[in-house]
Design brief:
The protein is built from 5 helices and 12 strands. The chain has helices spanning 3-15, 19-34, 37-41, 58-64, 134-139, and strands at residues 44-46, 69-76, 79-84, 90-92, 98-100, 113-116, 120-122, 127-128, 145-149, 155-156, 170-172, 177-179. Strands 3-2-1-6-9-11-12 form a 7-stranded mixed sheet. A 3-stranded mixed sheet has the order 8-7-10, covered by helices on one side. It is globular.
């Protein structure tokens, strides 16, 4: 299946989810994440502020923000900057995603764990994003453990990948945990 076909299929499946199904899936995925050694050991974690069609991260961020140090990406041209998460310092940024404000950009080397969304993943750890390459550029510069999170229907046996794509170290869905 080609990338455009996968993106179209996943978009349609996401649109069919009820709010209850979205909430339940996020709860299940993040409960699995909490049990991983990578999460338990990490202090500095890059998370994402979810779009309506992604696994919702707000409850998870609120639950853990006083015990872990979270960072969120902010679009800067064609790249992503990483800034500390503070609930009161968010504003609508690029692509209608709430992004952190301020000038205190963190060094990617300080991040121990990255929780990454995608359109699709495969069982080898490959990730298909939305097509702009923001995460690929960021992931290529990081030595952090990379965990991809998504709905079970976002997991494929194989998806097209490019030489510049950075594979995940683990994929977590409501029903599956895959370690590479």
């Amino acid at each position: 299946m080609e990338k455009s076909e996968i993106r179209r299929k996943i978009k349609n499946l996401r649109m069919m989810l009820s709010e209850m199904e979205k909430a339940s899936a996020a709860e299940e995925v993040f409960a699995r994440l909490e049990k991983t050694a990578a999460f338990m050991m990490a202090d500095n974690i890059l998370m994402y502020h979810s779009l309506p069609d992604e696994l919702q991260t707000i409850k998870f961020l609120k639950k853990w923000h006083d015990r872990k140090r979270f960072f969120l990406p902010r679009v800067n041209g064609v790249n992503l900057d990483i800034l500390p998460y503070e609930e009161t310092r968010l504003e609508l940024g690029s692509f209608h995603i709430e992004e952190p404000t301020g000038d205190n950009v963190a060094d990617v080397d300080d991040i121990e764990l990255m929780i990454i969304p995608a359109v699709a993943f495969d069982r080898k750890g490959n990730r298909l994003g939305r097509g702009k390459g923001f995460y690929d550029r960021l992931l290529a510069t990081s030595k952090a453990t990379k965990i991809g999170v998504g709905y079970e229907f976002q997991l494929f046996d194989t998806i097209p990948s490019e030489p510049h794509d950075v594979a995940m170290d683990m994929i977590i869905t409501q029903k599956t945990v895959i370690k590479m």
